[in-house]
Amino acid sequence: MSTSQKVVVVTGASQGIGAETVKAFRKLDYRIVATARSIAPSDDPNIVTVAGDIADPATARRVIAEGVARFGRIDTLVNNAGVFIAKPFTSYTSEDYAVMTGVNLNGFFYITQLAIAEMEKNNSGHVVSITTTLADHAIDGVPSVLASLTKGGLNAATKSLAIEYAKRGIRANAVSPGIIKSPMHSAETHGALGALHPMGHMGEMSDIVNAILYLDAAPFVTGEILHVDGGQSAGH
């Protein structure tokens, strides 16, 4: 088994930004472990897919174990899986809370812990998480307390990881998007959602993918929360 090619794990990889991230890393000749709740097997021998709920620690164990068994190493983890439920704060249910903390927090914790343990073996690696600019800049009319609670927590955790592992060759960064054109948003909503950004339009999935690739290729950047949000975090 050759271990010269770098290996990236991508969560939430079946559609949208996750699927585009998989394509982008394959163009760079990375081997890929792609996971999502429902994901089809790949015909590409350099892509292994693992279906499962990222909130379940057993899924995290299978993803990392499969990556190491097939490719021998883990170089980059892209924590892309996420859930956004927009409700007035007092309308959230315990089920909403369980889903959002499960995917956004548990889904980060379990797989990141295991991935970093593998990265430590090579004294190198990179964790990049997808968060939200709403954690920095709340928007009137877009109720987002649980998104801010969970994704804002990932921003803070990213900085903590960056400092804890800086001398061990492992970096941690985050991409903080605005509202992105993806399967999450139907076309008829694009005009209204675009108007929420100072630049007047939504972002493209390629904007987020390019930010991920930049951070992965930037060896002197760690602890960075890179806002790709059409100016939202700067103000209105």
UniProtKB/TrEMBL annotation:
Pfam families: adh_short_C2 (PF13561). Gene3D superfamilies: NAD(P)-binding Rossmann-like Domain. Keywords: Oxidoreductase. SUPFAM superfamilies: NAD(P)-binding Rossmann-fold domains. The keyword Oxidoreductase applies. Its EC number is 1.1.1.385. GO terms for molecular function: oxidoreductase activity. Belongs to the short-chain dehydrogenases/reductases (SDR) family. This is Dihydroanticapsin 7-dehydrogenase. It comes from Paraburkholderia sediminicola.
